[in-house]
Amino acid sequence: MELGLIGLGKMGGNMRERLRRAGHTVVGYDRNPDIADVHSLGELVDKLKGPRVVWVMVPAGAPTQSTIDELADLLSPGDVVVDGGNSRWTEDEKHAVELGIKGIGFVDCGVSGGVWGLENGYALMYGGTPDDVAKVQPIFDALKPEGDFGAVHAGKVGAGHFAKMVHNGIEYAMMQAYAEGWELLEKVGSVTDVREVFRSWQEGTVIRSWLLDLAVNALDDDEHLEKLKGYAADSGEGRWTVEAAIDHAVPLPAITAALFARFSSQQDDSPQMKMVSALRNQFGGHAVEANAAEAKAMKKQSKKSDK
């Protein structure tokens, strides 16, 4: 199958490679000409045979809106646009209407898997009509993990991003729980090897998970997370989850507390947020901030390398 893929960053680039390994033809566009296959969206559309499927993998908000606006003028009736970024679900319905006026289908897809998705596959949650989803199904099948699970047609347009939003809200709470437990273990003098306590939990316990495995990876890299600043950004989906809970009168105390902890980290150097920051870097390649001493050492080393 042919696919146009717009946005070849950390996830988009790996998705292109996974799809090509599965035998699909992918025409990729990115603002960085060094990694793009074509020089413009018009050229991308011209290289695809109809009915076309174009997957948008760019930041939510204005970048996604402007991309969809341009595609609306380039594509033809019967084509389908997939938004695989982290758009808010309320935007999906608007995009579906805008494209639908011109006979172009729209599918929203929440994607999870981070920098590990190339080898492990991506968990996919998508929303749209059965006909539009069917046009994209071979791509979904190639991107998902092997086996019976890892992908779901969650419902109507918007359902995919809503499901991914809730997924990320749960992720906030799980990461916060590991981070709080890690800080408490570090504070108690009688526990002399916190890293190995975490490692021991990887087998046979009810709290074993991929996030726990990544926490151990992070501790292997920096046993006491001394190189990191206790700061963790929030991508927006945690906020949207809490806002949706308020709109639907659903109590989310753990997820809300985890979101507020992120806010606290943005004011102080929080020990718990060192673990949350390390986990985000491990699974998604998200940027981390070095503490002042580490940043100074890195700058000094950089100056030596320049000589």
UniProtKB/TrEMBL annotation:
Residues 160-307 form the 6-phosphogluconate dehydrogenase C-terminal domain. Gene3D superfamilies: N-(1-d-carboxylethyl)-l-norvaline Dehydrogenase, domain 2, NAD(P)-binding Rossmann-like Domain. InterPro entries: 6-PGluconate_DH-like_C_sf, 6DGDH_YqeC, 6PGD_dom2, 6PGDH_C, 6PGDH_NADP-bd, 6PGdom_BS, HIBADH-related, NAD(P)-bd_dom_sf. One of its GO terms (molecular function) is NADP binding. SMART domains: 6PGD (SM01350). Keywords: Gluconate utilization, Oxidoreductase. Signal peptide: none annotated. The active site is at K164. It comes from the Bacteria. Belongs to the 6-phosphogluconate dehydrogenase family. This is Decarboxylating 6-phosphogluconate dehydrogenase. It comes from Streptomyces montanisoli. The gene is gnd.
